[in-house]
Design a protein that fits this description.
Layout lengths: L4 H15 L8 H8 L3 H13 L3 E4 L5 E4 L8 H9 L21 H18 L3 H12 L6
Helix pairs in contact: 1-2, 1-4, 1-6, 4-5
């Protein structure tokens, strides 16, 4: 499985919002500049994340975007699934009906275990975890 640019950039964008949590709305252009990602590309990613209730927009001169939940409540899995859709290694692990051998296929069991392990990792990491790791690695003294 290889994650698309949508997920990789989406996680980076959401991380930037998490860094600025409780500081009010952030301009998307600022996030694009900080992460070195095209503003145009990011503007496409905010739509599904907003509809999922992970981001909220604020209109006006001091408007922008901000997390709709605390960073500790947003897992990487939530972001990736919203941007990717199904993230299974093979289709039969999520939809057994696509394969006539699903009942007795030993390989399907392996792919299912791999899917479960990946989802467990993505579920076990929040944006707050990323912020904490970043601050620790950077030796930063500021707090959210």
């Amino acid at each position: 499985m290889r994650l698309s640019t949508r997920s990789r950039y989406g996680v980076r964008m959401m991380f930037e919002f998490a860094l600025k949590f409780n500081q009010g709305p952030v301009f998307l252009k600022e996030v694009a500049k900080m992460q070195g990602i095209s503003f145009k590309y990011l503007s496409k990613l905010v739509i599904p994340l907003k509809s999922a209730g992970l981001l909220q927009s604020v209109r006006g001169a001091n408007g922008g975007y901000m997390l709709a939940k605390h960073p500790s409540e947003i897992t990487i899995r939530m972001i990736v699934e919203k941007l990717e859709g199904d993230v299974s290694l093979v289709e039969c692990t999520e939809n057994p009906k696509v394969c006539k051998r699903n009942v007795d296929c030993v390989a399907r069991t392996i792919w299912k275990k791999a899917d479960d392990a990946i989802m467990q990792v993505l579920d076990g990491i929040t944006l707050q975890d990323m912020v904490d790791e970043y601050k620790h690695a950077a030796g930063s003294i500021y707090e959210i």
